[in-house]
């Protein structure tokens, strides 16, 4: 390291001395021209009809030309260095932007992966019926943040004492999508759940299966169930909703 600094210092000193010597020489040239002009020419070739002032004027213009050329070269070099520095800065900024893009893509991919790993969730409850749980009015709420679409009812079954007594094929639904937090209503045409003597059914279970798609197009299947101890009493509790596929 010290050797490198010593060489660099020596190089600077040499450049300064050469510059001073060159400047001193350029300053002496007019005096040299003045002395040479007064001497007799060694042969007829140097015997020209030019005034001393013309030679000095020519020398001054020559110095001006050399100075202009040097300034032009310096300007070109400076422009080249400035352009090169600008290109380096642009390349650095582009490299930083590319890195930021890579980080953003990775973060977005991780967010998408997390969202895909957390499928939509729903809350379901009964809001109305026409007596003895006939013609059920249901409310479903998307409790996740993401929107779902292609909402489809697959089937609705009624069990009594764990035995299937009715498979509903008719329902009234007027929506196909649910935004995050949005609530929609639908009607399922269940039958009157009491016997011929008007006695209520006991130990009843509803099972509703439906499907939907998330925003990435992945399809999800759900089963919503609730137990009704006695069809003579209204149960407004939330159903148990689980993902089955």
Q: How would you portray this structure in words?
A:
This protein is α+β, with helices and mostly antiparallel strands. The strands form two sheets. It has a five-stranded antiparallel β-sheet with strand order 4-3-7-8-9, with no helix packed on it. Helix 1 runs antiparallel to helix 2. The radius of gyration is 48 Å and the shape is rod-shaped. Strand 7 and strand 8 form a beta hairpin. It contains two helices and nine strands, in the order H-H-E-E-E-E-E-E-E-E-E.
Descriptors:
single chain; 245 residues; alpha+beta; five-stranded antiparallel sheet; four-stranded antiparallel sheet; 2 helices; 9 strands; 42% helix; rod-shaped
> How would you write the strand order of the largest sheet?
4-3-7-8-9
Which percent bin holds the helix content?
40-55%
Arithmetic mean of pLDDT: 81
Order of helices and strands: HHEEEEEEEEE
Count of beta strands: 9
The global form is rod-shaped
Q: Helical segment tally?
A: 2
Category by helix and strand content: alpha+beta
The low-confidence runs, each spanning 5 or more residues with pLDDT under 50, are none
Proportion of β residues? 25-35%
Spatial extent as radius of gyration:
48 Å
């Amino acid at each position: 390291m010290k050797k490198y600094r010593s060489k660099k210092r020596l190089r600077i000193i040499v450049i300064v001395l050469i510059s001073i010597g060159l400047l001193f020489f350029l300053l002496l040239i007019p005096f040299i021209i003045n002395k040479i002009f007064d001497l007799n020419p060694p042969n007829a070739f140097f015997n020209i009809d030019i005034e001393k002032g013309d030679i000095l004027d020519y020398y001054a213009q020559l110095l001006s030309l050399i100075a202009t050329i040097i300034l032009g070269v310096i300007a070109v070099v400076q422009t080249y260095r400035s352009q090169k520095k600008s290109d380096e800065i642009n390349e650095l900024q582009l490299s930083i932007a590319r890195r930021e893009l890579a980080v953003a893509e990775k973060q977005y991919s991780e967010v998408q992966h997390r969202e895909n790993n957390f499928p939509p969730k729903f809350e379901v409850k009964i809001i109305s019926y026409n007596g003895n749980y006939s013609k059920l009015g249901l409310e479903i709420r998307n409790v996740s943040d993401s929107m779902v679409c292609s909402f489809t009812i697959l089937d609705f079954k009624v069990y009594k004492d764990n035995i299937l007594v009715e498979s509903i094929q008719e329902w009234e639904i007027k929506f196909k999508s649910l935004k995050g937090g949005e609530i929609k209503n639908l009607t399922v045409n269940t039958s009157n759940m009491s016997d011929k003597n008007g006695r209520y059914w006991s130990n009843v279970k509803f099972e509703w299966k439906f499907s939907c798609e998330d925003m990435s197009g992945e399809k999800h299947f759900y089963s919503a169930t609730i137990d009704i101890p006695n069809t003579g009493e209204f149960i407004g509790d939330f159903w148990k909703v689980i993902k089955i596929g």
